[in-house]
Amino acid sequence: MKRVMGLLGFAVLLFCGTVPAQADDESIIVAWGDNDWGQCNVPSPNADFVAVAAGFGHSLGLKWDGTIVVWGFNDYGQCDVPSPNADFVAVTGGRGHSLGLKYDGTIVAWGYDEFGQCSVPPPNASFVAVAARSIHSLGLKSDGTIVAWGNNDHGQCNVPTPNAGFVAMAAGAGHSLGLRANGTVVAWGYNYDGECNVPTPNADFVAVAAGNLHSLGLKSDGTIVAWGNNDWFQCNIPTPNADFVAVAAGSYHSLGLKSDGTIVAWGNNEFGQCDIPAPNGAFVAIAAGFGHSLGLRSSLVGACCHDDGRCTVTTEAGCPAPDIWQGVGVFCAPNPCPPAGACCQADGTCILFVEDSCPTPGIWQGAGSVCDPNPCQMGACCLVNYCLICSESECANFGGNYVGNGGLCDPNPCFEGACCTVGGNCDHLSPEECATQGGTFLGHGTDCDSDPCPASSVEGDRRSAPPANLPPIPNPSTGQVVIQYEVPVAGSVALEIFDQTGALVRRFSQESQPSGSHEIRWDRRDSAGRCVPSGVYLTRIEAAGSMTTGRVVLTR
Q1: Residue pair 245/4 in contact by the 8 Å Cβ criterion
Q2: What's the mean per-residue pLDDT of the chain?
Q3: How far from each other are the two terminal CA atoms of the chain, in whole angstroms?
Q4: Structural domain boundaries, residue 509
Q5: Domain with 480 in it: what CATH number?
Q6: Alpha-carbon gap, residue 291 to 55, rounded angstroms
Q7: For 244-286, how does the pLDDT look when each residue is reduced to its tens digit (9 = 90+)?
Q8: Are residue 441 and residue 474 in the same domain, yes or no?
Q9: What is the strand order of the sheet 224-228 is part of?
Q10: Of 99, 55, 90, 100, which Cα lies nearest the Cα of 74?
Q11: Do 56 and 146 fall into the same domain?
């Protein structure tokens, strides 16, 4: 909500009667679409603009010094700004007329006035916003009431009661919209196409816009809701419908401004009004006319990189640490921000962060990884030197050591583990290093955090523990099988393989092996070198006077 309102606030900063401290030579207007009346030919110098508006066939720009520039269709004098052209803080345009809001809260209107759309009702004071579309006008007062005047053949000037609590408004061809402070939208006037039927839930709106026969509402979560006539698909918001900060409605097309400063356009494109010129970035305000579109691009803003990998366009002050501002004029397309990825917490929760922001003891899953499905309910499982990703329960069923939620196999954590030495000390070592120090290797992937090495039991446990027969890989197998095991103390080891009748198939022996993890690769052949048939085979490992058994399944 803060990001949405922050950029909205910048785009309409003059509505509140404030003026920038200095000119912004790079705040330019970009125009595209129908140009039959020159409405896309922005007069030079194209600089220092702070707001834009579009009428039927004319365009308006508000300069930082409070003057208005108007160009395009001028048959009714809608481009002839009355003097003194000064102290304006907001502009809007209708079918053949224009409105300007002064710093003192008065409205100036000029152009086509057959329906009284330029005759501002008294008292002309205390206005804070203006709106126009066709041949009626709207003014928002500081007390939250809306004043409407001009053509009223569809009741578009009959503001519903209670006329109170409004904070924004929009005018369509024959209907009007009002946004209340509680986030609800009120609509009245022409409703043949349902443009006044606000979809449920009517809540959480932060901005509105009205076309000829359709309506747009911006929600606080950055999504757009559209309703009314859809003959030109002007209500079909392109996906993803997210991260919008402003909306504008043309006669039969729609515009949405994203938080990254890009514009999305949809609906009627007969005149190219939906074809945003490149580069599509660093825009801070939008407007739409009958067949043309306007975008205000400003150098007062730049890309802001957030710790969850998002890129938004804002001022430097609007990008507080730990977010990183990329500088004036830097666009979000292409995205200058480091990629985000899933950051796994110890409790299995997942948060999107860039790598540098994944807080310890979180485990970053890599650029582009996502939290749906949640990768943090699984982790690395060590089966001797082999590492696989599975759940903790699955790892237990495999007889492996679970490294923890979010644990990765790259780099492989399974080459080392906890080693208990005489005296109860625990070190994280490889099996070979552990054997060199005369220690007991507790398994690949184990750690010393839980103090697994009580001093009084190390030697006794080490001598009495049987060899561990770990799961063969793969099992079942169509070919070679890796038989894994761990021995507690150094000594001779024998591995024997039997068929289901109890007949000895193959025997492997090692005169001396250090304590720790080992493996023997069985090529599916018996002691005579013949390939054995499919079936279940039993394994028996003898070491240090103890024995353990397992089984291997062979298939074709």
Answers
A1: yes
A2: 85
A3: 61
A4: 468-554
A5: 2.60.40.4070
A6: 10
A7: 999 999 999 999 999 889 999 999 999 999 999 998 988 999 9
A8: no
A9: 205-210, 214-219, 224-228
A10: 55
A11: yes
